[in-house]
């Protein structure tokens, strides 16, 4: 696109040897330890009470591993934390994401609308666990198992946006037909993924359109686009390619991409045609 921005980040998001863990993990862990000691519990006693091992509790307290939502909910109850742990969970989850994606994820969490065009793959918000894991395992250079687990958990946690009620988020997804033919993870995984897309087409706040391959040239051929509007009615456009995210908020630039996206919606199959197309592909697997 030829655009640059101070919000863009060119890192790959991999945490190399010797690099510090996210500060929010350490802060969360210190709160767990504070509440545990106030409750007069040992790490083993807390572990027994919430159904985790003492090693897992120690890892969370030391900020070596992020807490999952289930850990947080159990610890909130046992430690009577008053929501102090729960309020950090979103930040803990976002810190699991690749570094290049974290700015965008923070904006996405504030969205009331999210419109995207995805030319290569099913977008993360619509991915099944198996599909997402297959993509992470295909990463090169290979990711460590711990990184795969963390990125996978964070990606699945982002999907709560689809069902968030206050405020509800309106979604529009335009998927290139080729992304639906790409056998990520094999036929079984892709069959499950298409079934997931079919289910999402029935959600009242989600629209899915397919851009047919026979539409040889269209206004999205230059790559992926995501348009966001936040609760404060601030508008952003994000473009991602090869681990580089470019986020823009200039009104004229955002307006240009909104016009482009409107054209894409008119060129793609409508929502009813797209639902039938996805159903047909699922039936062929």
UniProtKB/TrEMBL annotation:
It comes from Streptomyces caeni. Residues 32-65 form the HTH cro/C1-type domain. This is Helix-turn-helix domain-containing protein. InterPro entries: Cro/C1-type_HTH (IPR001387), DUF5753 (IPR043917), Lambda_DNA-bd_dom_sf (IPR010982). It comes from the Bacteria. Residues 1-21 are annotated as: Disordered.
């Amino acid at each position: 696109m030829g655009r640059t921005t101070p919000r863009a980040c060119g890192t790959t998001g991999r945490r190399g040897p010797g690099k510090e863990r996210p500060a929010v993990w350490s802060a969360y862990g210190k709160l767990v330890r504070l509440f545990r000691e106030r409750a007069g519990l040992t790490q083993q006693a807390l572990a027994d009470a919430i159904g985790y091992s003492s090693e897992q509790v120690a890892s969370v307290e030391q900020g070596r591993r992020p807490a999952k939502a289930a850990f947080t909910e159990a610890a909130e109850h046992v430690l009577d934390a008053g929501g102090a742990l729960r309020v950090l969970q979103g930040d803990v989850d976002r810190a699991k994401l690749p570094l290049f994606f974290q700015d965008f994820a923070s904006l996405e969490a504030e969205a009331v609308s999210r419109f995207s065009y995805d030319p290569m793959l099913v977008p993360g918000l619509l991915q099944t666990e198996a599909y997402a894991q297959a993509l992470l395992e295909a990463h090169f250079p290979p990711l460590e198992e711990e990184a795969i687990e963390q990125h996978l958990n964070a990606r699945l946690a982002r999907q709560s946006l689809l069902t968030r009620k206050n405020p509800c988020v309106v979604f529009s997804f335009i998927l290139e037909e080729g992304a639906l033919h790409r056998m990520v993870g094999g036929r079984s995984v892709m069959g499950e993924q298409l079934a997931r897309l079919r289910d999402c087409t029935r959600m009242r706040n989600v629209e899915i359109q397919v851009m047919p391959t026979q539409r040889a040239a269209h206004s999205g051929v230059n790559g992926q686009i995501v348009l966001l509007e936040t609760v404060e009615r601030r508008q952003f456009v994000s473009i991602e390619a090869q681990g580089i995210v470019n986020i823009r908020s200039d009104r004229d630039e955002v307006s240009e991409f909104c016009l482009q996206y409107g054209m894409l919606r008119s060129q793609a199959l409508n929502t009813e045609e797209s639902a039938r197309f996805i159903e047909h592909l699922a039936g062929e697997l």
